[in-house]
Design goal:
This protein is an alpha+beta fold. Helices cover about 15% and strands about 35% of the residues. The strands form nine sheets. Strands 24, 26, 31, 32, 33, 37, 38 and 41 form an eight-stranded antiparallel β-sheet that branches.
Length: about 675
Amino acid sequence: MRAIAFVVCLLALTSRGWGEPPEWRDREHTRHEHPHGAKHPTEVNPDRFETTRRSPVVLPLPGEEDAFFFVVFGDRTGGPPEGVAVLKDAVRDVNLLEPDLVMTVGDLVNGYNQAGEWMEQMREYRGIMDHLLCPWFPVAGNHDIYWRPLDDAGMPRGQHEHDYEMHFGPLWYAFEHKNSWFIALYSDEGNPETGEKDFNKPAAQRMSDEQLDWLKQTLEKAKDADHVFLFLHHPRWRKENYGDDWDRVHQVLVDAGNVTAVFAGHIHEMKYQEDDGIEYFALATVGGGQAGLVPSTGWLHQYDIVTVRKDQIAVASYPVGAAMDPRELTEDLTASSVTLSHQTPTFEGGVRLADDGSTLGTVRVTFTNPTGYGVDVTLIPGSDDPRWYYGPEHEHGHVPAGESRTFEFMLGRGEGPVDAAYRDPQIAVEAELLTDAFRYAIPETVTAMPVDVGSHRPARPEGERVLRLDGRNGVAVLPSDAYELPDGSFTLECWFRARSFGSRVGMIAKTEMSDYGIFVSNGTPVFSVMLGDAYANATGAEGMLTTGEWHHAAGVYDGSEVRLYIDGKLAARTAASGERVTNDFPFMIGSDVDWSGRPTSFFDGDLDAVRLSRGARYTGESFTPARRAEADADSVWAFNMDGELGRRVFDDRVEGAEARLSGGSAVVAGD
C-alpha cells in the first residue's frame, strides 16, 4: 500500500512541475532576492518516508551527503579596550550555533607594545576564545606582530613573531576537515631585505619564497579536496598600498583548481569580489575599531557563517549579538518581558503653568519592577517643546525583582506663550531585563509628566470643533484611573461622521473580554456590555450607517436591558442584567483596545460630544440628541473637543479628565 501511494504522489509531483525554480521577483520584500548556489539535491525514497495518510503530495527528502559549517571572526583590535565585550558576545552567539570550527583573520590583541603587555592581552584573548565549544584557529595580523617602540633596545628580530608562535600557533599552517582544506597565511613577513614591517609599503607586503613554496606544496597535497579555504589578515587582492604581489599568489590559487574562497580582515568593513571563480571576502570587526558609517552595507561588528557542501558553499553574515537562545525563552521570561513592556512610571508632584507660561518644580518618578528578574533602567526627560528644561538630563538605576526605585527630576519652563507649539514634557524609560546569560532590551516607553495647564486650558470656541481621526493609528486615550464608573446603569454616546467603515471598527470602546463600547463595523452599529460571562449586544440594522453624514449614537444599559439609539431613535434592544465585568485598560476615543492596552480597530472620520454618564440617560423609543454634550451632575466625563493643547483634549467638567492624542489625530474646525 505504501508503494502504491508513493507512486501516486510521485506522479502528482511530476505533473505539477514542482522542480521549476521560483519566480523570485514576485516577492514583496527587496532584500536578498538572488540565491547564490544551486538548489540542494533531493531524493524521493519511500524507504525514508513514513505516513498513514493518503495524499497526492510527495515531499522530496534532503540528500544525505555530508555538509558542515564554520564561522569566521573579523578583527578584535584597533578599537577601545571594551571591544573584548563584543568578542565575548560573539563567542556566546557562536556557542548557540555550534559550528565545526571558528577561523579568525588576525588582529587578536591590541599589540604595538612590548612583551609584558602583549602577554597580558594574549591571555585575555585566549581566555575568551577558549570558551568556544568548538576548536578555533588564529591568523596573525599586524597588531599581533608589531613591536613598539621600534627603537627599543630589547626589540627582537621579527618583533612579536616568536611570542605569537609560542602562544597562538604557527605563522602559517593548514589542516584538513571533511575533505576540505583550511590554509592560514601570514601577511606581515615584512621587507625581505630590511626586515621592516609596514602594511602601507608594497615592499613589505610580499609573500616570501619560503611561504609561497609551502603554499604550493600544500595545495598539491589538497588537490583532491572538495574545497580549499584561505585565511590571512591583509586583503592584498585590493592592491592599493599592498602593491601587486597578490597577482602571482592568485594565479597559484587559480592553477590549483579547487580554491573556493579567501577571507581577510584589517580594513574593518565588509567587501566582496570574485576573480576567476575564487570568492574574496573582507570581514569587518568583532570588537575592533568600528566607524559604523553604514551598518547595513558592512560597517559593523559581524561574523561570517560558511556552510559547506560538496559542490558549493553558502556565506551569510550576522551582526554580533543577533543570535537568540530559544532555551532561555521560558513562559516566565517571555511573560515577564511583556509585563515589563507595559510598565509605565508613576509620578509624585508635578508643576502648574503660571499665567505667563512659566513654571518650576520637581517631579518624583517611580519605576516599579513587577517581574522576578532584575531590571536596569534609564530615565530620560524630554519634550518636542524646546522651552522645557530639566535636571538631571537622565538617570540610570538598577531595580531588583519585585522592587521599586524613585528618581527625582527638576522640571522648568521659562516665561512664554502656551501656544499651538506647546507640548508636554515626557519621560522616556529604557529598560533591560537581566538574566544570568543575557540582557533583554525592552521597547522604550514614553509617558507624559504631570503638568496642570491652569488658565491655558482651551476655552469654548465660537465655532464647532471636532476630533479628526485618520483610521490608521489616530486615537485619543483616556487612562482608566482618570475616572470611575460605578457598577449599574450607564450611558455612552457620541456624534460621529465616518469617511469609511472597515470590517472591524471600534469607535468609542474599552472592550477586551470585559467592559463596554460602541462599534460601527461595516456601517452596522453595535453597543456591547460585558455582563457576567458574556457580552450583551444591541445591534442595529446591517449597514444602516452612511458615510459623510453626522450621526448620533447612544448606548444605554439600565440594569435590565441594553439599548442602542441612532440619531435619537431606538435601533436595537436586548434584555440583559448582571454585574459588569471591568478592566484597567484605557478608554479609547476612536478605536477599541487590545489585550496589551493598545489601540486597535481604528475609526476613520470625525468624533464630537463624547460622553459617559451614570444612569440611563435616554428611555423610550426616541429623543432629540443635543449637539453638545453638557457636563452635568450625571456626567462621568464629557469631551466636546473644544481644542487641544500639548496633544491633549479636555473633559468639560471642572478639574476634569484629559485624553492624550496620538497617531493621526487632531482637533480641527467642524462644519
